Amino acid sequence: MAFLRSICAQRTNLVYSCSVSGSSSLCAGKRQFGSYKPTAGVAASSSSSNWSNNELKYSTVFNQRQRVFPQTLFASTTNSINDHRQYLQQQRGVHTNASKSQTVTATQTISDEQKSSVYSKSQLRRTPPTPNVPENPQRDPLDVGFNDPVAAFKSKTTWELVRAYLVYMICSSEKLVEHNMKLMKVANTILGEKLFTALMKATFYGHFVAGEDQIKIIPTLERLRSFGVKPILDYSVEEDLSQEEAEKREVESSVSSAGDVKEDGAMPQYHVDKSFADRRYKVNSARTYFYLNEATCERNMETFIKCLEAVSVDDGKYFPRRTSEGATFGTGITAIKLTALGRPQLLLQLSEVIMRTRKYMEDMVGGQGNVLTHHKTIKDLEKYYASLGDNKNVKDFLKNVTSDKEGILHLFPWSGIVDEDSQLSDTFRVPDPKTGQMRRLISQIPPKEEEMFRNMIRRLNTIVKTAAELDVRIMIDAEQTYFQPAISRITLEMMRKYNKDKAIVFNTYQCYLREAFREVNTDLEQAKRQDFYFGAKLVRGAYMEQERARAQALGYPDPVNPSYEATTEMYHKTLTECLRRIKILKDNGEDAKKIGIMVASHNEDTVRYAIEKMKEIGISPEDKVICFGQLLGMCDYITFPLGQAGYSAYKYIPYGPVQEVLPYLSRRAQENKGVLKKIQKEKRLLLAEIRRRLMRGQLFYKPKGNYVPI
Questions:
Q1: In 128-157, which positions are buried (b, 16+ CB within 10 angstroms) versus exposed (e)?
Q2: Which contiguous run of DSSP H or E holds residue 61?
Q3: Is the pLDDT of residue 172 over 60?
Q4: Counting Cβ atoms within 10 Å, is residue 512 exposed (0-12), middle (13-18) or buried (19+)?
Q5: Residue-level pLDDT at 171
Q6: What is the pLDDT of residue 12?
Q7: Minimal CA–CA distance to 466: which of 504, 439, 410, 436?
Q8: The pLDDT value given to residue 132
Q9: CA dist., res. 473 & res. 471, Å (int)
Q10: Which of 182, 435, 454, 626 is 20 to 30 A from 361, comparing alpha carbons?
Q11: Residue 549 class from Cβ within 10 Å (0-12 exposed, 13-18 middle, 19+ buried)?
């Protein structure tokens, strides 16, 4: 008991406290940014069949607004933080061209008090103080066996080690994990909200979640940075929907108001199936968004922007991350999902178009794969259409084909689709090789749904533009294979648009998929030919069981690798190809940062493989082209030794109010149950470090790092 009391006393002494005035929850169901209140038309619409014009035309004013942030009391830094934010907002201005936007109705008022608090640009541009960068940042040797408990846990207090051990013990109990969500709800009912919140902060929440809002997570981010680790922020509030409600929303938002039309050549995997409408089915390691209405998508956009601003403001302790000497605090990252920004129906239809385009090309010229892999020129296509004679449809079609000196990149003008107000129904048409008549590769999309697509692209443009201005990276998460062709295509176009001087936008590739290597190769080729910086996050994947079950039920080929070993081989093969291309860039005297890769893996063999390959081909951590990422509260014995040895290391940082991140915590418990081998190693290292501190009288050890993230 004396031991436990001393640990609790230590925990109390080490609690970080921040006074927050006027702070508000970012709850998905509550709008608390500034004084905005949605119109009745926006709030009321929850069904895809009842879109109101008010909801649909949701907000150029929203884009032109000056976001009002809670006043945060951090002693002498308060004005500096607010000045920095206000300056960034003024510089950002209107996110989209108002002349092109068709989304006007919502209004937002700024009170006289708020208006008077806005500083002039000259005030905001004053020279900020230099961040406090250690003169001789510490670097430790790396144990590639990842067996050093001191290196793994020197960033933790003894209480945090004990808490981690208890959490992993609970995760090892199959019955507790299986019913964890029910148990949490029962505990909440019995204990009441305050006691339950305290219990969660002392256990699961405290271990896996950084804090309740972007202010309260700052101490966690600062401590991570002091030990060489950078943040990937994710606002992890999730709706706790029943299966019935999830299925209802998904079916309604995945079918056009014109009906689920399956024309000749339709592909079943790109149409919704009620049996798999709850996309959480057999998915533990990924968050799922279910479309409600356009207003919710706007709120999701705002949440992502707040993540960007939080990770940007944190960099360099609220000031620009680079000092006059060029030292760096590293680059923060925010993760987003496209399904949070628009109707899933649009991603389904766009994905089907992309795959039907590939088949059209394969049928015409032979071979297989993406259009650019065929290396055909416009003259080659003219030969295929020669039998049609002087056909105006063919000529007009060929004018819009995207090509370069090496051949055709795309059959359709994707840059126009992402940048302009192109109509999808009119764009995705190809000449019939036999008749010359234009035929659609996409069913007719009603005007309201065309506008919804424009809204989705506008939201993504807003987010990426903000990231570029804040010098923060955006990682667009991979999702199910029936969405992924559209997600990857849109992401690549965002790279082409924004990755001109550095990698701002990263795509995610799931290596459990059979096509992963080919897709990465194709996208690397496009980046090279169109001269933009390529960013990729490599993961094993989150939807394997669901993908297999759906493929079998709907009768299309299983997209998943046959075994765990095959997935590992795919991951290593893909990573090796990326490293090979980086080496070519270095050898040719070109910018090696034209390719940036995140090895996002909790598998220490994969991390070790990446390190060995880096050494083998002469890529150093200082090249800043390879980084590593793991979740907060998982595999600390990998992340922290990497960061402390000078490698670019990231922690995926979830945050949000306790009551609203319970679904996230439930998934973390389920995921840990599935990786018992890794848990056993982490538990062994935790016990070793707890014993070492007890033996050396370091029970009240206070973490203090002198590391600087690379």
A1: eeebebeeebeebebeeebebbebbbbbbb
A2: helix 60-64
A3: yes
A4: buried
A5: 84
A6: 42
A7: 504
A8: 56
A9: 7
A10: 454
A11: middle
pLDDT value, residue 371? 86
Question: ∠592-596-601 over CA atoms, to 5°?
Answer: 140
pLDDT at 320: 39
Q: How would DSSP label each residue in 637-668?
A: HHHHHHHHTT-EEEEEEEE--GGGSHHHHHHH
User: Residue 1 pLDDT more than 60?
Assistant: no
User: What's the rounded Cα separation, in Å, for the pair 607 and 5?
Assistant: 39
Could you tell me the two tokens for 397? 């079609």
Residues 131, 129: Cα–Cα separation, whole Å: 6
Q: Which two tokens stand for residue 611?
A: 């390190």
Written as one string, the DSSP assignment of 99-115 is TT-----------HHHH
Distances (CA, A) of 115 to 59, 69, 174, 305, 606: 21, 12, 55, 21, 53
What pLDDT digit, counting tens, does each position of 27-78 carry?
333 333 333 333 333 333 444 444 444 455 444 444 444 343 333 333 333 4
Calculate ∠ Cα 48-54-57, nearest 5°.
Answer: 85
In the block, which residue shows the tokens 């090979």?
580
Which is more confidently placed, 57 or 537? 537
User: Strand pairing of 438-440 and 473-476?
Assistant: unpaired
Task: Report the SS3 class of residue 20.
Answer: strand
pLDDT tens per residue across span 225-264: 999 999 999 988 888 888 999 999 999 998 887 676 666 6
To which residue do tokens 């998915």 refer? 283
List of residues 6+ apart from 333 with CB closer than 8 A: 230, 231, 232, 233, 311, 472, 473, 474, 475, 506, 650
pLDDT of residue 113: 37
DSSP code for 118: P
Separation of alpha carbons 608 and 568, rounded Å:
13
Query: What angle in degrees, to the nearest 10, is found between the helix axes of 516-530 and 484-498?
Result: 20
Rounded CA-CA distance 460/473 in Å is 13
- φ/ψ of 171, rounded to 5, equals -65, -20
Where does residue 384 rank: exposed (0-12), middle (13-18), buried (19+ CB within 10 A)?
middle
Cα distance between residue 143 and residue 645, in whole Å: 9
97, 201, 644 from 217: Cα distances, Å: 35, 13, 21
Output the DSSP codes for 441-481: SSPPPPHHHHHHHHHHHHHHHHHHHHHHHHT-EEEE----T
Q: Among all chains, which residue has been given the structure tokens 């060929």? A: 398
Q: What is the pLDDT of residue 467?
A: 95
**Across 312-316, 458-462, 607-611, 634-638, least confident range:** 312-316
The neighbouring-strand residues paired with 328 are 322
Query: What does the DSSP 8-state code read for residue 120?
Result: P
Residue 508 scores a pLDDT above 90: yes
Residue 110: count other Cβ atoms within 10 Å of its Cβ.
16
Quickly count: other Cβ atoms within 10 Å of residue 603's Cβ. Answer: 18
In the chain, the amino acid numbered 695 is: M
Average pLDDT, the chain: 80
Distance (Å, whole) CA 296 – CA 459: 12
DSSP 526-549: HHHHHT--EEEEEE--S-HHHHHH
CB 601 within 8 A of CB 542: no
Q: What are phi and psi of 33, to 5 degrees?
A: -85, 115
The amino acid occupying position 35 is S
Identify which of 92, 27, 41, 89 has the alpha carbon closest to the alpha carbon of residue 295: 41
